[in-house]
Every structure is written in C-alpha cells, then in structure tokens.
Amino acid sequence: MPVLETTLGPRTAGELGFILPHEHVFVDLRTPDQPGYAEAETDAVMRAMVPRIEEIRAQGVTALIECTTGGVGRRADIDLAVSEATGFPIVVPTGNYREPWIPDWVREASQAELEAWMTRELEVRLDEAPFKAGWIKLSAGDDGITDLETTILRAAARAAKGCNATIGSHTIRGRVVMDQLAIIEAEGHDPARFISIHTQAEPDFEMHRAVAARGAWIEYDNAGWVPDGAFTDTVMRALDAGLESRMLLSHDAGWYDAAKPEGGEQKPYTVLAASILPALRDRGVGEETIRLLTHTNPFNAFAR
Ligand SMILES: [Zn+2]
After folding, report:
1. Which residues fall inside 5 Å of ion ligand 1, going by CB?
2. Mean pLDDT, 10 residues at a time, the chain of 304 residues
3. Beta strands 61-66 and 217-220, pairing class
C-alpha cells in the first residue's frame, strides 16, 4: 500500500486528509560555507513554528511537505521536534539545491556516491533521524541545468527509480523542466514521479500544458504571495484545460529563517483553506475536484 514517509512514520491515504505539498518549517538561504549556516536554537524555532502548525491543523490540514533540502538549511532534527510537539506529520526530502548552494562534499562526490546517499536516506533514515526521507528535492539554474546539477539529477533519478520516489525541482523555466524530464527518462525513471515546482513562474501556459502532458506534476505554490484572484485565475485556467489530475497547490510559506535575527517574520500556511478554496467553490469548482487538489493529488505525488 502506498504511504507518505513522514517524521512520525509512514501514513496511508486513509490516515490523511488535506495535505500541503510545498511549505517550509526551517530555511537558511545563506550558502553552506557561511559561518552559522543552518544553526538555530530548536526552542526558538518551536516558538515560531508550532503556532503556524496549530493554525493549519485547526483548518483541517493533516500533513505538510517540507521543501527545505540540502544546501538551504535542511534540519531533520528541527522538523522532527516541531512534528513531535504538535503530533503533526511532516515529509522531509533528501537531495540538494542548485548552485551555488552546494556543499563541498556534494560537489566532490561521484554520481554513484550521491545515488547511494539519497537511497540510504529514502530507505533507511534521513541523516541520523528516526524516519525516512519522503522524496528528493533538487533545483536547476534559471537559464539551464549545469553539469554539477545534472550529475545530482542523474543520481537522484537512479535513487528515485530504485525506491519509486518522487523528485521535485525548483525550476523557473518550462524548457529547463523539459530538459530535466529528458534526463530522468534517460535514466529509466518515470516523468510521472517528477514535480515542476513553481510552475507559475513560467509565463507561457502552453509550457504548463506540455509538462503535464509529459506526465509530470505542475505545482502552483504562490498562494498568499499574489492576490487571491490572481491565484484562482491560474487554477481555473488549468482546470479549464483539463489538468486537474496533475495539479498541486500550496503556499511556499513559513519559515524560521536562520539567517535573520529571531528567525525573521513567518508567513502563515492558511490562505488556501481560508480564502482560496472558498473562492474556487464560488467559481463553480465542485467538492470532488477540491478533494483531488487538496488530498488525492498531493498524496499520489509524494506517496511511494
Ligand atoms: Zn519553497
């Protein structure tokens, strides 16, 4: 039976409802070579983030996907502490972000070593945490994938194929997504196990259609960053184009920012449930489609 691998162990579809497929609990966008990178007091993170989780739990959200990967402040121990304090499952990735957020050990590792590392995190445990990585999060350069990013993607495709895991990538241009899908296919993995993160950043809607037609997930993850009307317009356009079964919706919000004093200001994960879903219902979207967008799709995208 397919499960989401979470901080609190595996969860089946029947154990979950509304799932947010792209949020952050903890981030550090300084590069890994900077002093203080990814450092914070766990208690300070809990004070900032536990209320954010309680807020969405009260709205009926049952799990979220942490999109902070290697190189941008991944802290499995902090994700676990927040999860345990709230009893709320979080899905944490293996993998690494794009250049220049690549630590020396990843830069110097062979493709086979990177594949073995990601496989271990997916199948055994993530870092020393008592849970498995749920998926692989990567990124590619805005103008095209670099040689180093290609090595990481090839390793990820092989690891993901072995565990039937999903790869999600922060990729701004649709044509770069298509290049990534070609690499994944060349390594024998399935484009249906790829998420084009930040699809909304690609202005050409025909590219959204093309990525979905290739079998990949398209993700509109800027709820709360743009006016609700603009977000719902984007969703309605994709629904009208028949893309409902390949679409993911989220906020890309949160987070405790290790680079800022006291973790900076947090942005809530509440907009979808509070105002976007009601707006979609007002525009004629039925409950079956709402369920698809908030539960079935995010579960299927990440479950393995
Ligand atoms: Zn993000």
Report:
1. 67, 252
2. 97 98 97 94 97 98 98 97 98 97 97 98 96 98 95 98 97 96 97 98 98 98 98 98 98 97 96 98 98 98 98
3. unpaired
